[in-house]
Structure formats: structure tokens, C-alpha cells
Amino acid sequence: MAGEHNSGEPRAVSVGVLKGGFGKTTTAINLARELAHRNGSALVVDLDDNGHMSQNLGFTEQYSAEENHAEAVLINGEDPTQYIQTVSHGLDIFPAHVQLEDVQSGLKEATMGTTRLKENLINPLLGDEYEYIVVDCPANRGKLNDNAMYATGNIIIPLRAESGYESGLSSTVQRLVQEARQYFELNILAITPTDLQDRIDQDTRDRSLLKEINNRDGVSKLVPNYARITSDDWEAIDQGKQNGNLPGIRHRAAIDRAHDEGVPLRDYDEACDQLEAYDELAQIVEQGEVVHK
């Protein structure tokens, strides 16, 4: 169902990065929750074989079920709606399954194996049941990731300010995005820093990450407004004249506690200041691009 914020064009998006521990699942669930909040409904698809999102949200029974629902839909073409579960307030989930690796092997053997997620789940639901669908991707290359990229045609890449973020970004762009673009259109909607918690007026990893994405050719235009830092901003920061909130999605106890409670951030603490960042991410999905102020 479309809400007052809807741009009029249904859109699916993958949240992916070829490195674990970069906030991918946290970004995906909170982005999907904000899309549901803004538009009335949204679907998140858990394609990550570790099933962290599905289990954390309370769908361990579906994740461990004897019937492999992911295989039933992606390989056998069964109706996906019979396996969809309600998370909260218009947000639904197609859960992961413990045997997703078997599905990945089956997709390698299947005719047109890269197209199955699009043909069997995204196309039947997008624009009909849901205006927006978010796919939480595995952190490794393979047919599940190929399916996600092909089905959505859009990706958001989250990054954490820890050792290896440069390789995580480069690997994702080169090995996932650029390789996919040899075969189909794939847009990077945004590149977002997550879980930032250090000062940026000193030589910290947060500063290095923010410098990298805001100064790198082809990347800076993909940085959301909440993480954008201009040369004038850096000058003010280094002179101790920075005003306003620190950039990026910042570390908050509420985000960790929401995870511990097995709910999206909005359902744990709707007053958390970081919801503004997830709301902007939702707007980027609605608009199909970053629009700098």
C-alpha cells in the first residue's frame, strides 16, 4: 500500500557488502522498518545464510523448519506469500532458512538460476503487495548474491570504521557491483558509514572512513547528507568550530538494545536520534538516488 511519502515507483534494494560485521543486517532491518513507517508496508527478505536477522526477530522456528521454504520458492516456484511473516507495523519478512547453502547449490544447477529471486518473489510482490522490498544479502559471493543484485537492481553498501573497511568497499564495488554490471544494470543508491563512535577532529578510524568516502571520486556523490562532509566542514572541524551532530550513523545503546530485544530500532526507542539517518536512507530508496541539500 502506498503512503503519502511514496514516489510512485515501487523499488527493491539490496543491502550488501563483501565483509562480515559491517552493520549490514542492522542497516537492512531498520531501513525496511522506516520504509514501512513512511509508506504503510514493506518487506525484508533475509538471504543471509547465517540467518541472524530472522532468528533475532523471533523466527527461529521458520529458520530451522524441516521444509526449506527458500528452496520451495526460489527453486520450485511456490507462492512466497505463504511463507511471509509479520514483524511489526506493516513490516513483513521472508525469513532465511538454515539450508540456504543448499539453495545456493541448487541455483547453480537451475536453468536461469540468477533470475529466480526476481521471477519467483520480487516480481510477484513488488508494486502489488509491497511498494518497497529490502534484501539482506550474504557477505560472500555466490548465486544468492547474484540473485539479489539482479532482482533489485539497486544496492546500499554499509561500512564500519574498523580495520579493512577500504578492502570491504573496494571488494564490494569491484567483485560484486562491477562484475554484475557486465550482465545487467546495477545502481549503488548509497554508501553509508555505520556504528561510528569516535571523534573526528583527531586521527581516528571514523575520521579516516569519512575522509575516504567524502573525497573518493565516484563515491562522494553516494554519501547521504547525514554523513556528508565538505572541505569547509573539515576546516571548521579542525578549528574546533563544528556545530550540530557528528556525521554518519552513530553508535547508540538503543540500537544494541533493540537488537537484544529482537525488534527494529523504531519499535524499541522512537525518540532515538539515529532514526533520522535511517529515515533519510528510506527517502533515498524512494527517490532512487541521493539528493544532496
UniProtKB/TrEMBL annotation:
Domain AAA: 12-176
Signal sequence annotation: none
InterPro entries attached to this UniProt entry: AAA_dom (IPR025669), DNA_Partitioning_ATPase (IPR050678), P-loop_NTPase (IPR027417)
SUPFAM superfamilies (alphabetical): P-loop containing nucleoside triphosphate hydrolases
Protein name, UniProt field: Chromosome partitioning protein
Source organism of the structure: Haladaptatus paucihalophilus DX253
